[in-house]
Amino acid sequence: MIVRRAEPADAQGLKELGDAVGAEPEGWLATTNGWRDVVDERRYLRAIRRYPNAAVFVAEDDGVIVGRLSIARDQHPASRHVADLGLMVAASHRRRGIGTALLEAAVRWAHAAGVRKLELHVFPWNTAAIALYEHFGFVQEGYRKAHYRRGDDYVDAVLMAFWIAPAGV
């Protein structure tokens, strides 16, 4: 398994991963409309490569994309030390260290970017993801009622955060 920065050529694989995770009956993604199309994904990946305040990483197993992590720094001057992330792993590859490897890539990126805090939202029913994040060192900082609209429903989200020690500490 390889973790690396995403390339525009990964757009098809990322679309397939997003569609597969989004189609799972548990409802892991905030959207119910599927993942963005390949053209939009490729455009996004091209743009993100030129933008120093965000990145997308992929986990690849035998040439197949099985995980994705996106990270973006907050642009407000008072919270530029914070970056938000999103993570997904293919059902076939969960509980094999891929989520941890992607989170480690996020921490390396954050160190290089001067980010001190990583944040994410996770649905309260996604207990496996919450366990992964807690094992990695994330803590629950809040609970956001009706934070996302999924189809016709409003669903809650758990806010979790991970503090990054400064280099040399």
Structural account:
The protein has 169 residues and is α+β, with helices and mostly antiparallel strands. It has a single domain (2-120), classed as Aminopeptidase (3-Layer(aba) Sandwich), CATH 3.40.630.30. Helices cover 30% and strands 35% of the residues. It contains 4 helices and 7 strands, in the order E-H-H-E-E-E-H-E-H-E-E. It has helices at 11-23, 38-49, 98-113, 127-136, and strands spanning 2-5, 54-61, 64-73, 82-89, 117-122, 139-150, 153-163. A 7-stranded mixed beta sheet has the order 1-2-3-4-5-7-6, sandwiched between helices. Strand 2 (54-61) and strand 3 form a beta hairpin. The chain is globular. The two termini are 30 Å apart. 27% of the residues are buried.
List the helices and strands and how they pair.
Blueprint: E1 2-5, H1 11-23, H2 38-49, E2 54-61, E3 64-73, E4 82-89, H3 98-113, E5 117-122, H4 127-136, E6 139-150, E7 153-163
Parallel strand pairs: 4-5
Antiparallel strand pairs: 1-2, 2-3, 3-4, 5-7, 6-7
Helix pairs in contact: 1-2
Structure summary:
With 169 residues, this protein is of the alpha+beta class. 30% of the residues lie in helices and 35% in strands.
CATH hierarchy, class: Alpha Beta
Task: Kindly report the average pLDDT value.
Answer: 92
**Named CATH topology:** Aminopeptidase
**Structural class designation:** alpha+beta
Q: Let me know the largest β-sheet.
A: 7 strands, mixed
Helix content: 25-40%
* Strand line-up of the largest beta sheet: 1-2-3-4-5-7-6
SSE string? EHHEEEHEHEE
What is the distance, rounded to the nearest whole angstrom, between the alpha carbons of the first and last residues?
A: 30 Å
Count of discrete alpha- or pi-helical segments spanning 4 or more residues: 4
Described by the principal axes of the CA atoms, the overall outline is: globular
Integer-rounded radius of gyration: 15 Å
CATH superfamily: Gcn5-related N-acetyltransferase (GNAT)
Strand count: 7
Portion of residues in beta strands equals 25-35%
Low-pLDDT parts are none
**Proper CATH architecture:** 3-Layer(aba) Sandwich
Q: Quickly count the domains.
A: 1
